[in-house]
User: Fold Alanine racemase from Brevibacillus panacihumi W25.
Amino acid sequence: MKPFCRDTWVEVDLDAIRANVETFRRHIPEKTEIMAVVKADGYGHGAVQVGREALDAGADSLAVAMLDEAVVLRDAGITAPILVLGYTPPESVGIASKRQVELTAYSEAWIREADRLLRQDQLEPVGIHVKADTGMGRLGVRTTDELLGVVGALEESDKLRWSGLFTHYACADEPDDTHVRRQHEMFQAFLQALLASGRKLPKVHCCNTAAAIAHPEWGYDTIRLGIGLYGLYPSPYMKERADVSLIPALSLKTRIAHVKVAEQPITVSYGATYTTEPNEQVATLPIGYADGYSRLLSNRGTVLFEGSRASIIGRVCMDQTMVRIESGEAEVGDEVVLYGRQGEEEISLDEVAALIGTINYEVPCMLNYRIPKVYMRQGKECGVFHPLFK
Ligand SMILES: Cc1ncc(COP(=O)(O)O)cc1O
Assistant:
């Protein structure tokens, strides 16, 4: 008995996750570790399941965006090092201490407040990765003086351990490498300033997927592997370079809920924006924009039925989508692929992203709590997780 009642599901191929980790393991220097980035519920693939698979496949640590995501991983029994990449309010530092999760910091005031709270509550020390803003314009120290001030404040605290130093590249996935090289030079200058001050460096990291592909020699102590872990390339340019061969891990599937043949023309969906030709086969699929399947695909997207494309007709609804079956006889219960492969055909996340005017990162992240995740290994189901029932 399936643990879910609507025949729409995400399928995650854990063999692909494993293969992608192994691909990057071979691509980067032997001394460089892999930090698997599983924020945003594993880019929509399931943070716990993907995190476990990545660690088992050779990743050394995990990274998330916020402390809450780290707590979910700890509650699931994951004991590997976890770094929170984003901002954590200082009043939450006690949770990081109790769950032994490392945090990102870049402000002296934050360091001093976090130190005060940890001392006040007599809690265990917390590992801190100092972030440098070398050109992302998001979080981080921007000058050597700021950096030395933050590191100095950490050294004065016996409740905060200086565990890392990192930066994030804004344009590593672009053909023109001027910006990323300028960022890397600035990061190297920060490292030199710290060494010149007589300090030993903690764990140093700067590479996201794109930088890891294009500049594996910049790996330092670890890369932060996000989109590549899921078998997706950071940009069309990076896909063309093809320095590494990645296997997409996610498919989105459903089963036909209703079929009709419109002998006479009928209009389809809200706004009656589509009128059928005589005798068109119209199938209704139990998925809509409330699942994170974009309404921008209305009258534009396609799905796969019996290995062929079927066009989305009319507007994508909150819970349902209609398609025109172009070949074959559709029946209720027949499987349809919305993202992924069926036979020789494939609807990639890159294609869907281009259709709706975004990047491949966003497409799986949009899929939400209403869609259960089915995990596959060697072509067989090995687990199901339904956020609705957790
Ligand atoms: C700070 C930080 N680091 C790393 C990543 C992963 O990037 P990719 O998904 O492009 O690999 C994201 C991020 O926000």
About this structure: Residues 37, 85, 168, 208-210, 224-228, 234 surround UAH (CB under 6 Å).
